Amino acid sequence: MAVPQRDFYTLTNDGRNHGAPRTWPYDPSPFGDDVMQGELMGLAAGTAVRLTNAVSSGSGFIGVSRDSPGSARKLGLRATEISVWTSGVHLLRTTNGEVYAQGATVYRTGGSVTDQITNGGAAANAVGTVLFPIGTGPITGTGQNRVPIIIDQYVNYAGV
């Protein structure tokens, strides 16, 4: 059963000052629908500032969305910028049946699911490393539970 996507504030810990969210220009047209809080974000191939929530080998991973432009729309406003976490530990949604262990690299699942991770994927789609608190883990994914992932070493927006 598919889990409906909804806003989820993913950040659990960011011990560094430079991890503050970075603001990016926002144009809703490439998304078809609004970006939700907690989505994996990338830069569209061949462009310096156009965001995409379809992180793939053709786009650099830039972090996890902090904002949901839909909130502005509900107030009758149009969002022109979006805030994206560029570091920190985030609770990301698992894939059903997969085991997540300390230190394992995780990847974006692909397709239209933009807020879920898998422990099998192409290196170009890597988005973070499992980082359990001491004495916890591993866990088996249900498709609804969340795993703490540190994204710092996989964020790449060089040249922007």
Provide a brief overview of the structure.
It contains 1 helix and 13 strands. By secondary structure, the chain is mainly beta.
Please provide a written account of the structure.
There is one protein chain. The protein has a single domain, classed as Virus Head Decoration Protein, Chain: A. It is 4% helix and 34% strand. The chain contains 1 helix and 13 strands; from the N terminus they run βββββαββββββββ. The longest helix has 6 residues. The protein is globular. The relative contact order is 0.23. The model has no long low-confidence stretch (mean pLDDT 75).
Number of separate strands: 13
The secondary-structure class comes to mainly beta
Low-confidence stretches: none
Q: What does the radius of gyration come to?
A: 15 Å
Beta-strand residue fraction:
25-35%
The largest β sheet comes out as: 6 strands, antiparallel
The level 1 CATH classification is: Mainly Beta
| CATH 2nd-level architecture | Beta Barrel
The level of helicity is: under 10%
Number of domains: 1
Query: What is the tally of helical segments?
Result: 1
Mean pLDDT: 75
Principal-axes shape call: globular
Query: What name does CATH use for the topology?
Result: Virus Head Decoration Protein, Chain: A
Order of helices and strands: EEEEEHEEEEEEEE
